[in-house]
Amino acid sequence: ETGVTQTPRHLVMGMTNKKSLKCEQHLGHNAMYWYKQSAKKPLELMFVYSLEERVENNSVPSRFSPECPNSSHLFLHLHTLQPEDSALYLCASSQGWDGFYEQYFGPGTRLTVT
Amino acid sequence: AQSVTQLGSHVSVSEGALVLLRCNYSSSVPPYLFWYVQYPNQGLQLLLKYTTGATLVKGINGFEAEFKKSETSFHLTKPSAHMSDAAEYFCAVIFKAAGNKLTFGGGTRVLVKP
Predict the structure, then answer these.
(1) Chain A from 63 to 92: CB within 8 A of any B CB
(2) Is the N or the C terminus of chain A less surrounded, counting Cβ atoms within 10 Å?
(3) B49 and chain A: CB distance < 8 Å anywhere?
(4) DSSP B84
């Protein structure tokens, strides 16, 4: 595997379910990001981790819970979601956070909440 | 407030015609500037970026963009559209001293007519 991978690519879940999205980067980067891409809204940054520490939480509801166990893996745990949470969730990584570093994106997980 | 705006959510061009996508930012200090492309069911791919130096930057697939400080703009062009250019294009910025945080415009979907 190369670059940034995300699993699953598609997920359908009910409002009472608990599920997790996984992201893995094979680039040796130290920073990882979650973005939300909804129809009719600009891409929104959700969370940033740098060296496994959360450095940014962009006012995201607590029903989204990120986890970064090491610099190569990032998870987004989902519980009691709402239909408006249906979106494409993109993961990205970069060499660092404190400064300018190009971000590399995964293909995304298309989430549908029923 | 700092922001980035893309004029036109949809653009239709004929194959072989000029592609022009507009991006303006609002900031007292020029940010780092990017254009990304997203093909259907895929993540974001970096087309080009401006950080410093020459204001005309060339990217992949024949695209280029020019940073104009006086106009706070970073418009994307391609002299001759190809069918494979049909995709959604995002202008993004990193406002300096705000961490490596990308702020995206709303996106412009390009349709190429034969």
Answers:
(1) 90, 92
(2) N
(3) yes
(4) G
Residue A54 contacts residue B60 (beta carbons within 8 Å): no
Average pLDDT over residues B10-20: 97
Give the least confident one: A88-92, A105-109, B25-29, B59-63. Answer: B25-29
What b/e sequence results for B59-70 when a residue is b if at least 16 CB atoms lie within 10 Å of its CB, and e otherwise?
beeebbbebeee
- Say what the pLDDT of residue B100 is: 79
Average pLDDT over residues B69-79: 96
The token pair at A42 is 């600009």
With an 8 Å Cβ cutoff, is B43 touching chain A?
yes
DSSP state of A9: S
Which residues in chain B have their CB less than 8 angstroms from residue A45's CB?
A: 101-103
pLDDT at residue A1 in the model: 61
**Is the CB of B100 less than 8 angstroms away from the CB of A90?**
no
CA distance A106 to chain B (A): 5
Residues A25, A72: Cα–Cα separation, whole Å: 5
The alpha-helical segments, DSSP class H, found in chain B are none
With beta carbons less than 8 A apart as the criterion, state whether A11 and A113 touch: no
B52 to chain A: nearest residue by CA? A100
Q: What is the DSSP string of A23-75?
A: EEE-S--SEEEEEEE-TTS--EEEEEEETTEEEEE-S--TTEEEEEEETTEEE
